[in-house]
Amino acid sequence: MIRLYYHPISANSRRVWIALLEKHLPFELVPLNLDGDQYQADFLSLNPFHHVPVLVDAEVRIIESIAILDYLEAKYPIPAMLPTDAKAIAMVRMIQMVTLTELIPATLQWTSQILGFVEADIEKQQQTKQKIDTVLTFFQQQLGDCHYLGGNDLSLADLTAGTIVPGLPELEMSLDGYPSLKAWAERLSTRPSWQQTQPTPETIAAFLPQMKALMTTALT
């Protein structure tokens, strides 16, 4: 049985959770509260960097969500979430890397600023917003007339960006200026895997104090 060590607010965890659901694989969810349990010896033996997610499949243990997605795609290739065409593969990887290296850091900064976790004047907020706008413009261009970011079929690109972008309006970052991208986000939200893994407002509210501590540490 596959085991996924996760936290419901973690976008990194959620993209793996969605992959497991989309591939219709049997798995067990092992929740971590991230209130110090990530530093316990049992979990550190799985991931010495004390992060979620961690996936355990029989004797295989993998950390880092992108590596986990690649493992699942290679071992459980149906339904396929990685195209075979060279250009399409590059597109998927490009979207994944831009999400990880550009969008997520800017979103962490923006979230910390609007929630008051860190001090930020209007100029700093505008700079952060511009970073996110640049990514959204890029994604809109790459999406074009396709249903999904990797083409017309759901791919690992959608799982990676799709656990960040659809939540931006809740962080006062409208998608109205990106109509194709907004339609894409709405398309994802109708999928059972997205609905099943969507954290509730109550879960988010309860996690805010820990979120502040974790995000403040990540930004320092």
From TrEMBL:
Domain GST C-terminal span(s) in chain numbering: 85-207
Q: Name one GO biological process term.
A: glutathione metabolic process
PANTHER family per record = MALEYLACETOACETATE ISOMERASE
Q: Which GO terms describe its molecular function?
A: glutathione transferase activity; maleylacetoacetate isomerase activity
UniProt-listed Pfam families? GST_C, GST_N_3
Where does the UniProt annotation place the signal sequence? none
Q: What is the lineage of its organism?
A: Bacteria, Bacillati, Cyanobacteriota, Cyanophyceae, Oculatellales
Source organism per UniProt: Thermocoleostomius sinensis A174
The protein's matches in InterPro entries, at most eight in alphabetical order, are given as:
Glutathione-S-Trfase_C-like, Glutathione-S-Trfase_C_sf, Glutathione_S-Trfase, Glutathione_S-Trfase_N, GST_C, Thioredoxin-like_sf
Which residues does the UniProt record annotate as the domain GST N-terminal?
Answer: 1-80
Name of the protein this chain belongs to: Glutathione S-transferase family protein
